[in-house]
Write a structure and sequence with these properties.
- With 360 residues, this protein is α/β, with parallel strands linked by helices.
- It folds into 2 domains: 244 residues, QueA-like, CATH 3.40.1780; 97 residues.
- It is built from 6 helices and 17 strands.
- The chain has a 9-stranded mixed β-sheet.
- The protein is globular.
Length: 360
């Protein structure tokens, strides 16, 4: 197995630069997991594939305003800070200061020990937030730093919403529309650097239709990191260092998933992040345990035996990515690559704002 096995020619004009006008009216490519047989449908048709006793599991995380654009104090040079995750257990007291793992640009001028501080303005040009680079992240692979965020506003949350911007994937170049369309309609706590995009296609009416058809609707939370967009550079995908993310599975979700499987229902994961959450929480028997914000670095490659997930709703993924490998593991590389060739021939819209697949 080589990384090149998960490459495919992606026409740039098929990379969706904005969401479909109506969430659940985008296209849906349905693929039989075993045979690879394909059907071209519309996303809201997903309710027609529901069997009584199924359970849909979605990642309810929201994308935080993690992109901070400002100026280096003193020189006035432009700088960018990207929030990865809060450093739990090491944050200063109060809600006006905290330590975060971050990425910065320009990296050479924002090194720990240099006294570098970046001031982040709000829409009116007033400094809402200051970021001081204080240390390196131990074991970091991309120059991650520890930074102290502080504000004179009542809380950091208020400052982030005043000054921060919702990050979009690097292949979405000029979207200036409603950023709420890069959030799922069921999203809750802001804890991710990127959206669980398979869920973007659901509307409240479609969620209700799925439940009327006999499925249950349950949630997990996985804090999506930037590495979700990262391609694999190594020739051997097994040599790639998979990213670590934090996930939670509530006792209620674990119980419903286990009961559904015991009764012969299917567990339908909405998105690869839901897959990684459920599979990380599953024993070899398939029983899913409750989890309260544990780390997972589960790397799913072809040959992996799925324990908890029976069907998958997902978007089309970047060539040579770990997500291409995950969906190939869920069916087969041959089936998935044939489906992608079909999607490109039929001019499906690709990647985060694009159309969807249902592998069942």
């Amino acid at each position: 197995m080589r990384t090149d096995d998960f490459d495919y020619p992606l026409p740039e004009e098929l990379i969706a630069q904005e969401p479909w006008p109506v969430r659940d009216e985008c296209r849906l490519l349905v693929m039989d997991r075993e045979s690879g047989a394909l059907q071209d449908r519309i996303f809201k048709d997903i309710a027609e594939y529901v069997r009584p006793g199924d359970v849909f599991v979605v990642n309810e995380t929201r994308v935080r305003p993690a992109r901070l654009l400002g100026q280096k104090r003193g020189s006035g040079g432009a700088a960018e800070v990207f929030l990865l995750r809060e450093v739990l257990g090491q944050t200063p007291h109060g809600n006006q200061s905290a330590l975060w793992e971050v990425l910065v640009r320009p990296g050479k001028r924002l090194k720990p020990g240099s006294g570098a501080v970046v001031d982040i303005p709000d829409a009116q040009g007033q400094v809402a937030l200051s970021v001081e680079v204080v240390d390196w992240v131990e074991g970091g692979q991309k120059g991650e730093r520890i930074a102290r965020l502080s504000t004179a506003l009542p809380s950091l949350d208020e400052a982030l919403h005043a000054a921060g911007k919702t990050p979009l994937p690097p292949y979405i170049k000029e979207y200036n529309g409603d950023m709420e369309l890069y959030q799922t309609v069921y999203s809750r706590r802001e804890s991710s650097a990127a959206a669980p995009t398979a869920g973007l296609h659901f509307t409240p009416a479609l969620i209700e239709a799925v439940q009327v058809a006999g499925a249950q609707w349950r949630t997990v939370e996985l804090e999506v990191g930037l590495d979700t967009f990262r391609v694999v550079d190594e020739e051997d995908p097994a040599a790639h260092a998979i990213h670590t993310e934090f996930y939670s599975v509530s006792p209620e979700t674990a119980a419903v998933v286990n009961e559904a499987r015991d009764a012969g229902g299917r567990v339908i994961a909405v998105g690869t992040t839901s897959v990684r959450s459920l599979e990380s929480a599953a024993a070899e028997t398939g029983r899913v345990r409750p989890v309260d914000r544990e780390a997972t670095s589960l790397y799913i490659l072809p040959g992996y035996q799925f324990k908890a997930v029976d069907a998958l709703i997902t978007n089309f993924h970047v060539p040579r990515s770990t997500l291409m490998m995950l969906v190939s593991a869920f069916s087969s590389r041959e089936n998935v690559m044939a489906a992608y060739r079909h999607a490109i021939e039929q001019r499906y819209r690709m990647l985060s704002f694009g159309d969807a697949m249902f592998i069942c």
